[in-house]
Structure to design on (290 residues):
């Protein structure tokens, strides 16, 4: 699943391509329409696809920004402001093209599920192989309450203090630290890849209870998380499987990872081990991490 650095890369690529342009119309794939009709999982949330098409038509894209793992399109029409919210799920990708056949990879062309026609004639395309992503239209963030519970951005001045305070709460104190730092209400945007890397950087076992880690080590861990997120942003994110930036660009951070999915520790050269935490496979070095 794309984490903060990958979503940041998509946002940086989208901004110069679509800001200031107007959505003339949007069309969804038959898969989306059929899923909605049958009450099944659908990438369009809180509205029927046909209703979504109506409200989105004529919206001007004022600004594209990231919040945690979400893409926010600030849009306007008739003097009113709204939000188009996108989450990439496991395999979502955005493209800005003139024709669908410009999408190079067949697996994305096959799974195009939303096509926004812009006033320039360009197509803003959302493809999603596994269809776990989402598109949501709201007046403001408060219209989707889970968004109001997100932790501060990890680079914000108060983010570390917020993290430390959350760790003290009974809800988190006795959970494995890996589970806690992957919780978006504790730290925004840190998923399995960068949680694994950060814990290895400070030599903390992912299974250690949060309450067993000193405040000093928690601060070191938070700083390691910020450092690895920044490094990944600088390297275009991690393309492990289906992540692509806009128009199919791939990241390079996967070549710099030191523990995620490694079979052998790059430091001590002993075999790594893995454990499932919060539904995610957590790789660690039993020799280096304590």
């Amino acid at each position: 699943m794309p984490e903060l650095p990958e979503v940041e890369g998509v946002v940086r690529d989208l901004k110069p391509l679509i800001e200031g342009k107007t959505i003339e119309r949007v069309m969804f794939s038959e898969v989306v329409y059929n899923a909605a009709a049958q009450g099944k999982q659908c990438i369009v949330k809180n509205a029927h696809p046909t209703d979504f098409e109506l409200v989105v038509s004529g919206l001007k894209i004022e600004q594209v920004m990231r919040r945690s793992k979400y893409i926010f399109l600030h849009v306007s029409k008739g003097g009113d402001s709204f939000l188009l919210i996108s989450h990439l799920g496991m395999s979502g990708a955005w493209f800005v093209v003139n024709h669908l056949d410009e999408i190079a990879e067949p697996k994305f062309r096959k799974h195009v599920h939303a096509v926004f026609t812009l006033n320039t004639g360009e197509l803003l395309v959302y493809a999603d192989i596994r269809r776990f992503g989402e598109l949501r239209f709201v007046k403001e963030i408060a219209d989707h309450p889970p968004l109001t519970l997100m932790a501060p951005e990890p680079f914000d001045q108060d983010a570390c203090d917020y993290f430390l305070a959350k760790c003290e709460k009974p809800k988190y104190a006795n959970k494995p630290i890996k589970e806690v730092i992957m919780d978006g209400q504790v730290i925004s945007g840190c998923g399995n890849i960068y949680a694994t890397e950060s814990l290895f950087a400070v030599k903390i076992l992912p299974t250690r209870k949060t309450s067993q880690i000193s405040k000093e080590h928690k601060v070191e861990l938070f700083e390691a998380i910020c450092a690895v997120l920044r490094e990944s942003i600088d390297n275009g994110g991690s393309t492990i499987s289906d992540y692509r930036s806009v128009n199919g660009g791939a990241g390079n951070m996967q070549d710099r990872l030191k523990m995620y999915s490694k079979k052998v520790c790059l430091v001590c050269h002993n075999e790594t081990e893995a454990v499932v935490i919060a539904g995610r496979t957590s790789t660690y070095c039993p020799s280096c991490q304590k």
